C-alpha cells in the first residue's frame, strides 16, 4: 500500500480518534475507582467510620488498598488525637487558673472551666472564635498577638471591668514546633484581685497608723517645746498645755490598745466566754456608762426592749458591752445637742437584734458601705476632734462576726443612722431557741 495515497482526512481522523479512545478508556477506569472511593467515603466518613470495606477488583485494587491504608492511618491518628485531647482536658479542668489554647491563626481551640468562670463565658462562646472577640479586652489580646508574633513569653496584669471587676495576672507562652515555627499560644489567667485588695489594705493601714500617730506626737512635741521655752512660768498656760499633752497621750494609748485588740480579734486570738446575757441589763449598763457624757452634750440617751418577756442573748457579756459602747460612742460623735440616741433589743426567730438609733447628721450612701473599714471616717475632722481612733466600727464588725452574727447600717443624710447587729437567742434558762 502506498501510504502517500491515503486520504489526508483519514490520517487526521486517526490522529483524533486515538487520543479520544485513550481518554475514554482512562476515564472509564478512573471513574470506576472513583466510584469505589466514593462508596468508601459515603459508607465510612459520613458516619466517621473510616475503615469501611467494599468489594473491588481490577486495576483500581492497588489504589483502593492504599486508600484503605490511609483511612486506617487517619482513624488511628484521630483516635490518638482524641485521647491526647481528653488527657489535656483532664489536666486543665481542675486547675484554678484559667487556660486558653490558641492556634497560629489566633483562634481559640481549647478552654478550661476556670477561664469560663473568670470571663463569665461558656465554651461555645469561645472555642472557634478569634481570641480578641472572646475576651473583649485589648490588653489581653495584644499580649497574645505579641507572644505569637515574636515567640517570646509575655506577662502582664490586666484589669477586667465587665462583667465584674477583676485583676488578672496573664502569662502567654508561645507554642513552638520542632522546626522553631510558632504553632499558637497558651494563655494562663490567674485571679489576683483578692491579693491586690489585701495589699492595698495593708498599705492603707500602714499609712493610716502613721498619720494617726504622727498627729498627737506632733502636738506633744510642740507643746513640750513651748513649755521648755518659758511657758512653764505661766501657771494657767502651763496647766492648759499639760492637759492637752495628757489628752494626746491618752489618744495614743487608745489607738495602740485598739490596734492590739483588733489584731487579736482578726487573728482569732480571743476567747469568747458565751453565757446567757439579759438584753435589758447589758443595755442599761451601757446607758449608765454614757449618761454623764450624753447629758453634757445635750443628747437624750435611752434603751428599750421590744416585745414581751425577757430577751436573753447567748454572748460574751464583756465583748457584747464593748460592741454597744463603740456604737453609742460613735453615735455621740455625730449627734448634735438636742438629739437623741436609743438602744433597742428585739427577738427575731432564734436571733436577738440589737440596734443603736441616733438622730444625728446621717451617712451618705457612698460612705455607708465603708464605715466598718479600719480608719475609715465619714467626717475626719469631727472624728479626730472627739478623740476617735477610726477603729471602733471595725472592732464592732469583727466582734459581731466572731459571735456568728452580722452587722449593718441604715442611714439617711440629715435624718440619723441606725446601726444593728444580731446574736444567738436563748430562753430564760439558757437553752438555745
Automatic annotation (TrEMBL):
GO cellular component terms, A-Z: membrane raft; plasma membrane
Catalytic activity: ATP + protein L-histidine = ADP + protein N-phospho-L-histidine
Classification via SMART domains: HATPase_c, HisKA, PAS
Cytoplasm listed as a keyword: no
InterPro entries: HATPase_C_sf, HATPase_dom, His_kinase_dom, HisK_dim/P_dom, HisK_dim/P_sf, PAS, PAS-like_dom_sf, PAS_4
Primary enzyme class: transferase
Annotated ranges, domain Histidine kinase: 208-427
SUPFAM superfamilies, alphabetized: ATPase domain of HSP90 chaperone/DNA topoisomerase II/histidine kinase (SSF55874), Homodimeric domain of signal transducing histidine kinase (SSF47384), PYP-like sensor domain (PAS domain) (SSF55785)
Subcellular location: Cell membrane; Membrane raft
UniProt GO MF annotations: ATP binding; phosphorelay sensor kinase activity
Membrane topology: Multi-pass membrane protein
Main location: membrane
All copies of domain PAS, residue ranges: 84-129
The EC number(s) this enzyme carries: 2.7.13.3
TM helices/strands, residue ranges: 6-25
Keyword Kinase: yes
Keywords, comma-separated and alphabetical: ATP-binding, Cell membrane, Kinase, Membrane, Nucleotide-binding, Phosphoprotein, Transferase, Transmembrane, Transmembrane helix, Two-component regulatory system
PANTHER family: HISTIDINE KINASE 1 (PTHR43711:SF1), TWO-COMPONENT HISTIDINE KINASE (PTHR43711)
Protein name: histidine kinase
Gene designation per UniProt: phoR
Amino acid at each position: 500500500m502506498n501510504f502517500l495515497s491515503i486520504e489526508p482526512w483519514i490520517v487526521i481522523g486517526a490522529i483524533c480518534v486515538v487520543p479520544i479512545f485513550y481518554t475514554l478508556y482512562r476515564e472509564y477506569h478512573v471513574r470506576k475507582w472513583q466510584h469505589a472511593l466514593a462508596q468508601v467515603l459515603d459508607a465510612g466518613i459520613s458516619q466517621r467510620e473510616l475503615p469501611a470495606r467494599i468489594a473491588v477488583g481490577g486495576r483500581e485494587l492497588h489504589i483502593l488498598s492504599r486508600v484503605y491504608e490511609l483511612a486506617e492511618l487517619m482513624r488511628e491518628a484521630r483516635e490518638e488525637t482524641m485521647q491526647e485531647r481528653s488527657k489535656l482536658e483532664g489536666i486543665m479542668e481542675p486547675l484554678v487558673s484559667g487556660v486558653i489554647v490558641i492556634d497560629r491563626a489566633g483562634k481559640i481551640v481549647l478552654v478550661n472551666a476556670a477561664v469560663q468562670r473568670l470571663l463569665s463565658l461558656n465554651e461555645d462562646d469561645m472555642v472557634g472564635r478569634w481570641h480578641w472577640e472572646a475576651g473583649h479586652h485589648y490588653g489581653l489580646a495584644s499580649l497574645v498577638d505579641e507572644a505569637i508574633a515574636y515567640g517570646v513569653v509575655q506577662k502582664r496584669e490586666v484589669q477586667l471591668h465587665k462583667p465584674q471587676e477583676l485583676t488578672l495576672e496573664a502569662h502567654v507562652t508561645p507554642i513552638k514546633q520542632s522546626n522553631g515555627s510558632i504553632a499558637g499560644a497558651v494563655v494562663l489567667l490567674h485571679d489576683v484581685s483578692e491579693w491586690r485588695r489585701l495589699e492595698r489594705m495593708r498599705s492603707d493601714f500602714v499609712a493610716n497608723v502613721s498619720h494617726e500617730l504622727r498627729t498627737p506626737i506632733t502636738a506633744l512635741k510642740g507643746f513640750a517645746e513651748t513649755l521648755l521655752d518659758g511657758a512653764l512660768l505661766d501657771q494657767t498656760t502651763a496647766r492648759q498645755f499639760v492637759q492637752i499633752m495628757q489628752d494626746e497621750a491618752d489618744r495614743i494609748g487608745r489607738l495602740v490598745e485598739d490596734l492590739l485588740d483588733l489584731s487579736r480579734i482578726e487573728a482569732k486570738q480571743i476567747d469568747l466566754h458565751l453565757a446567757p446575757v439579759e438584753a435589758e441589763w447589758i443595755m442599761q449598763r451601757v446607758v449608765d456608762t454614757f449618761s454623764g457624757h450624753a447629758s453634757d452634750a445635750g443628747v437624750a440617751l435611752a434603751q428599750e426592749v421590744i416585745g414581751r418577756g425577757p430577751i436573753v442573748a447567748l454572748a460574751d457579756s464583756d465583748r457584747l458591752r464593748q460592741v454597744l459602747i463603740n456604737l453609742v460612742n460613735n453615735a455621740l460623735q455625730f449627734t448634735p445637742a438636742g438629739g437623741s440616741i436609743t438602744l433597742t433589743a428585739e427577738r427575731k426567730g432564734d436571733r436577738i437584734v440589737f440596734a443603736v438609733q441616733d438622730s444625728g447628721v446621717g451617712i451618705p450612701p457612698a460612705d455607708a458601705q465603708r464605715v466598718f473599714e479600719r480608719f475609715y471616717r465619714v467626717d475626719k475632722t469631727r472624728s479626730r476632734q472627739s478623740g476617735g481612733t477610726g477603729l471602733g466600727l471595725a472592732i464592732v464588725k469583727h466582734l459581731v462576726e466572731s459571735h456568728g452574727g452580722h452587722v449593718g447600717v441604715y442611714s439617711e443624710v440629715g435624718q440619723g443612722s441606725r446601726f444593728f447587729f444580731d446574736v444567738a437567742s436563748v430562753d430564760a434558762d439558757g437553752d438555745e431557741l
